[in-house]
Design brief:
Blueprint: E1 3-14, E2 20-31, H1 34-54, H2 62-82, E3 85-93, E4 100-104, E5 113-116, E6 123-128, H3 129-132
Antiparallel strand pairs: 1-2, 1-6, 2-3, 3-4, 5-6
Helix pairs in contact: 1-2
The protein binds zinc ion (ZN).
Zinc ion (ZN) binds at residues 94, 96-97, 99, 117, 119-120, 122.
Length: 141
């Protein structure tokens, strides 16, 4: 079963005075177990081959589309089968402007990452909390 999970992250930015500022936030993601990954893989394969069949009546384009979708099917299935987590969003207070922000993510986004705060587009660096212990930060609180 797909389960929603969160991971503590540090959100870093640079204040107007040029100082590094940081807050704590949460990285939200979905975890897929073995049966979910298999279901998603089968679904991707079925959709890809379904598109191959659907593109049969397209004159000229079918010479490219049909083999393309036929080949893509197993590759897409493999990719979905290997995907055990899917990123959803990052939530927390922006260290630069202090506003609550929810940053939407693509499913394949991973930490650490550079992004922007949603209300005021401040550049932010998001790091998993356990990774940060190795990277020493000179801003204590
Ligand atoms: Zn901000």
């Amino acid at each position: 079963m797909a389960t929603e999970a969160t991971q503590a992250v540090t959100i870093k930015g640079t204040s107007g005075e040029g100082n590094e500022v940081a807050t704590q936030g949460l990285f939200h993601f979905v975890e897929y177990d073995q049966s979910d990954r298999m279901k998603r893989a089968v679904m991707a394969w079925v959709i890809s081959w379904g598109l191959a069949i659907a593109s049969l009546p397209l004159i000229i384009a079918h010479w490219l589309l049909v083999p393309g979708f036929l080949i893509a099917g197993p590759f897409m299935a493999r990719r979905y089968y290997r995907t055990s987590t899917s990123a959803k969003k990052i939530s927390g207070l922006c260290p630069v402007c202090g506003q609550e922000c929810a940053i939407k993510l693509e499913g394949n986004d991973t930490l650490p990452m550079w992004t922007y705060c949603s209300p005021s587009r401040d550049p932010l660096h998001v790091i998993a909390l356990e990774d940060e212990k190795e990277v020493k930060v000179g801003h204590g609180d």
